[in-house]
Amino acid sequence: SQAAQAAEDGIRVLSAEKRIDLTGPIVKVFLTLKVQNTATGADASHVLIAFTPAEADHLAIVKATRAEGKRKKKTYIPLPVSPADPATAAPNGARLYSISLPTPLKPTDTTTVEVFYVLTHSLEPFPAEITQSESQLVYYRDSAVLLSPYHVQEQGTYVKTPSSRVESFTRVDPTSRSGPDVKYGAYGNQLPYAYSPIILHYENNHAFAVVEELVRKVEISHWGNVQVTEHYKLKHGGAKHKGVFSRLEYQARQSISGASSFKNLLARLPPRVHSVYYRDEIGNISSSHLRSDSYKSELEIEPRYPLFGGWHCTFTIGYGMPLQDFLFESADGRRFANLTFGCPLLNTVVDNLTIKVVLPEGSKSPQAVVPFETEQHLETSYSYLDVVGRTTVVIKKKNVVGEHNVPFQVYYEFSPIFMLAEPLMLVTAVLLFFAACIVYLHTDLSIAKSQASS
Amino acid sequence: PRPAPRADETLAQIPPPRPPMAAAASTMLESLPAPLLRALRLKTKQQELLLRVSALALIYVLAFAVRLFSVLRYESMIHEFDPYFNYRTTLYLTEHGYSEFWNWFDHESWYPLGRVVGGTLFPGLMVTAALLHRLLRALSLAVHIREVCVLTAPFFAANTTLVAYAFGREIWDSGAGLVAAALIAVCPGYISRSVAGSYDNEGVAIFALLLTFYLFVRAVNTGSLAWSLAAAFGYFYMVSAWGGYVFIINLLPLYVLVLLVTGRYSQRLYVAYNCTYVLGMLLGMQIRFVGFQHVQSGEHMAAMGVFFLLQVFFFLDWVKYMLNDVKLFKSFLRITLTCVISVGTLALGIGTASGYISPWTGRFYSLLDPTYAKDHIPIIASVSEHQPTAWSSFMFDFHILLFLFPAGLYFCFKRLSDATIFIVMYGLTSMYFAGVMVRLILVAAPAVCLISAIAVSATIKNLTTLIRSKSKSPQTTGKTTGSKAAAKGAVDQPLPFQHNVAVALLLGAFYLLSRYAIHCTWVTSEAYSSPSIVLSARGHNGGRVIFDDYREAYYWLRQNTPTDAKIMSWWDYGYQITAMGNRTVIVDNNTWNNTHIATVGRAMSSYEDEAYEIMQSLDVNYVLVVFGGVTGYSSDDINKFLWMVRIGGGVFPVIKEPDYLVNGEYRVDKGASPKMLNCLMYKLCYYRFGELTTEYGKPPGYDRVRGVEIGNKDIKLEYLEEAFTTSNWIVRIYKVKPPKNRS
Predict the structure, then answer these.
(1) pLDDT (tens digit, 9 = 90+) per residue, B500-509?
(2) For the stretch B193-217, what's the b/e string if a residue is b when 16 or more beta carbons lie within 10 angstroms of its beta carbon?
(3) Coil, helix or strand for A258?
(4) Residue B671's domain is classified under what CATH number?
(5) What local confidence, expressed as pLDDT, does residue B479 receive?
(6) Alpha-carbon distances, residue B430 vs A411, B385, B436, B438 (angstroms)
(7) Rounded to the nearest 10 degrees, how much is the dihedral formed by the CA atoms of B485, B490, B492, B494?
């Protein structure tokens, strides 16, 4: 195939720099690749990057940009990234992603591609169970050298951990560490698919907030409101809590007790939200604060209890938004709702995200435009005074992180006459009731005339 | 039990909204321009109808709206304890359908016994709510069953006002009916059990009770089979909704007996009672929980006896008519009466002796004899709503009705009829029961409202007639009559200052009624509208502080314990744990098995190692206790502990109440008895409490409810470990450790 040819064609990585950010609950990797087309005669239109199978399973998002211009006038052009043809044979099950270059790379030309990707669930807590007074230690596994289908001439890996408490790390000389930073490399002249496993064992007390399931329901009403209801199934994904939970310790010694637990979360909502609520199956949860300004609204929520490792919590957030901020008319006369994808909770990972866009009754030919691959289907939902039901666009995606919070659009056709259907129904019902009353009062159904009524 | 947290005392006093004026319609008509007015002018009868309908409609809305304080103050949620069970079963009913509900064996309660829910509850409330929910769904209103449940009680309270109106009209006149509707709409005695969220049997049962009484009185007044049939169905609904139906099945025969004795026997009564009793009994048997009690239980025998008595009476009446000879009839009467009485006594005797007719239950005895429960059934006596009523609660719940009631009785006796005799009897008996048990104020409330309404209506009517007659014929005022006979003969002979006195009295009546309205609104908003799951208090800076510890703990249980975990707690919290925590409990508020409850009481009052054995035998995984020492929440487990000891000791004599007392005094400080300081309940409540400073200037381990420093600060737990404590320490959950490996 083309991709395989390109690899053989001899793209060469002149220098590679891999920066791994391990400070949070998710792993962020910045990759700077300086590549050269060493082939003779053939242009290269793709650059491939490789992931181990484990990494590929936990890969939430991959973004690539190409820097153009010099120094201060540097502009970054986003490049499309897609999984490479699965037929492409790669050793040990490595998975390839191909970055398409907008202008093919001519022979002997070089370019710099910057890749950013996010791995979720890649930090393994060890020990897997901790008590309230212990802090959380995690393993991170990667390779010291860059896994790449190309020859790599020079390469370095930089790892940043949240604190200087690094229990252990694999040495692949040259390796150095200063405080929270561990540096691997530089290594020269690595063969394609070279791999040199490393393990870092370090302290990470960040909130490992994992939303196992999030269902967001966006109901559009042409009477002026967009109602959002979000059902969360939250879990602390870190090291499991073991043994006693002492409220006394937790209250008296907050800094050292339950260091890896968290008790509040921040949700960033659109500006001008109204009627915000926060509840669960058994009622309202009274611990939340809403701050809003003209750019955004911030909802700080506290679950009913602090979440320790392995503890679960489910809740629902709902809010209304003004319609004019989100609904527009496109050039071809269709309406489109411009909504934000992803999860409004900051610093969380969503394992399964379902977005249901409930269009008004009577909408036709809906179409969702999402900038990345999702699973979509249509269904019908019923709400107040619905007769035929509302068309609902269901969008599903797995492994969603903050980088997925980008706008997406749902296009549909809608005739405003349908807006009047429900008020007219109510008017008719009231009218019929009065008519029935009048008829009842003016008819005499008795068989014999009453004697007394004279 | 209604906990009265210290926090409640500091609630803000919001000025109560006044009920809307009912007579707005007439003033509106007068303000219209003259020609239009002429075109729209209604006949007096129509005007009266319009006024009556609009007043009733306003009362209906008022009755519903006044019960929504709790939703506005807190949220749309279920209150208290029992309603949580009702809500859980309703949820089950809507999710699984009626036949599943009917056959439901609940293994989440009374572990390891379980509970046959379908056969041990009154399904009326749940079925009503489920039907309302289905109706709303059919009208494509996408409401959740919880909202239906929360608003069921206010909805039925509003319906009760309509029944009260009809009832009042039946026994007196439509004016009294309107006043009765208005009084019952805001009567605190009734509101206490029917605010939004108080999803309990009483919510619909009072409606059913009053409806049955109204229909029966109507049947007696008309002698119509149709009304008797309606009364039987009303009774059926009541049987399906609440155990208080026993009151009806005993009051009706008593009423019939009184009518017989006072010589007011009539064919109408015969038709009404027989039809209502026979059909009502047959229909009542269809409720599984009641079953054959109508023919087998001692509590229902009075109705049957009166039924037979009525037949004998009718028969004798007929024989008397046929014989037409006093002497012959008298000897016949003697023979028949002897036969009937001996047969009746024999049947009752054989029935009771053979066990076919069950004797009266303890609950029934405790109603007749207020001291019975205290001596024999501690589990009934331990519930605060089963305590004898204090005078202050009467005043609190009835306010001016308390002295309008005797006045109403006076009017009733003045104009005695079958209907007024009924309401008098209903009033007197229910007042007695209200005195025996606090919660039965509820049953008395409709009667008190109706009788008071008669007093109010009759008084105001008399006064207004006086004022009107005066203004119509002013010349009669100064007239003086010489002879006494003439003065007696003239009915409306005016007294000096009659007009002024009448106006003053009228104003006084309005003042009283408006005080009543203000009092009712205030009581509703301050006392009866807190859900008791969520506690609130005023913070230092005047803001409202919410203590949501119960739900915190229940939700923690629901989310973070194994789904088959068994929770041991005192029975008060059983329903809430199963409904909100969704976990299996050992005992709950359906206190059907005294031994099981006593076992839990025994575990709580034993030393830890003994308790551990009991808990192991019951497969307990978690123990939940409620502790108010940090917040000053007084209805916690330490304050309930003596009842646990008593109930436990009632079955297991190893538990002795004096062991926990010092010189008959219950204390938790250093002077407490050693058994008290080391029993499981004490340990679980005060575990690590000795390290906590609760109040500034007090030593650590200062219990804010008891107001003492605790006596045992060094508590070690061997078989249990702290699993969760809520943010204000109100609920503490401990995990039972698995048995140690044998070494």
Answers:
(1) 889 999 999 9
(2) bbbbbbbbbbbbbbbbbbbbbbbbb
(3) coil
(4) 3.40.50.12610
(5) 42
(6) 67, 16, 10, 12
(7) -50
Cα end-to-end span (Å), chain B: 48
pLDDT value of position A450: 56
Q: Residues of B with CB below 8 A from A243's CB?
A: 721
Is A314 in contact with B554 (Cβ distance < 8 A)?
no
Which sequence spans correspond to the domains of chain A? 11-203, 209-417
Res. B637: pLDDT tops 50: yes
Name the CATH code of domain A11-203 (choices 3.20.20.140, 1.25.40.10, 2.60.40.1730, 1.10.760.10). 2.60.40.1730
Task: For residue range B438-473, list pLDDT tens digits in order.
Answer: 889 999 999 999 999 999 999 999 999 988 875 555
Contacts of A284 in chain B (CB under 8 A): 74-75, 77
Q: Which residues does B302 contact at the CB level (< 8 Å), separation at least 6? A: B249, B250, B253, B254
Residue of B71, B74, B140, B736 best to disrupt the A interface, most CBs of A under 10 A: B140
CB contact under 8 A, A386 and B723: no
Quote the pLDDT of residue B26: 44
Eight-state DSSP code of residue B209: H
Contacts of B723 in chain A (CB under 8 A): 244-245
Q: B559, A312: Cβ pair inside 8 Å?
A: yes
Chain A nearest-CA distance from B724, in A, is 6
Comparing CB atoms, the residue among A282, A382, A387 nearest residue B555 is: A282
pLDDT digits (tens, 9 = 90+) for B144-164: 999 999 999 999 999 999 999
The CA distance from B729 to the nearest CA of chain A, in Å, is 8
Q: How many domains does chain B have?
A: 1
> What is the predicted pLDDT for the residue at B616?
93
Closest-approach residue (CA) in chain A for B689: A248
- State yes or no: pLDDT of A213 exceeds 90: yes
User: If interface means Cβ-Cβ distance under 8 Å, which residues of chain B face chain A?
Assistant: 74-75, 77, 140-142, 533-534, 546, 548, 551-552, 554-556, 558-560, 580, 688, 691-692, 721-727, 729
In a domain, B566, yes or no: yes
Q: Is B711 domain-assigned?
A: yes
pLDDT at B36: 66
Asked if residues B401 and B520 have their Cβ atoms less than 8 Å apart, the reply is no
Interface mutation target, options A236, A286, A308, A386, chain B, most CBs of B under 10 Å: A286
pLDDT given at position B15: 42
Nearest to B554 among A247, A282, A287 (CB): A282
- Write down the architecture of domain A209-417 according to CATH: Sandwich (2.60)
pLDDT of residue B356: 83
If we measure between CA atoms, which residue out of A314, A284, A287, A227 comes closest to residue B71? A284
- Mean pLDDT for the stretch of residues B611-640: 92
Contacts of B559 in chain A (CB under 8 A): 311-314
Tell whether the model's pLDDT for residue A98 goes beyond 80: yes
ipTM, interface predicted TM-score of the complex: 0.91
B183, pLDDT greater than 90: yes
Q: Identify the helix (H) or strand (E) that includes residue B351.
A: helix B326-353
Looking at residue B92, its pLDDT comes to 94
3-state secondary structure of A190: strand
**Under a CB-based contact definition with an 8 Å cutoff, are residues A123 and A187 in contact?**
no
- B4 forms beta bridges with none
Q: How far apart are CA B137 and CA B160, in angstroms?
A: 25
Question: What gap in Å lies between CA A360 and CA B325, rounded to an integer?
Answer: 86
Neighboring chain A residues of B75 at a CB cutoff of 8 Å? 283-284
Write out the residue range of the structural domain in which residue B555 sits. 546-736
Same fold for the pair A11-203 and A209-417: yes
Answer whether A246 sits within 8 Å of B688, measured CB to CB: yes
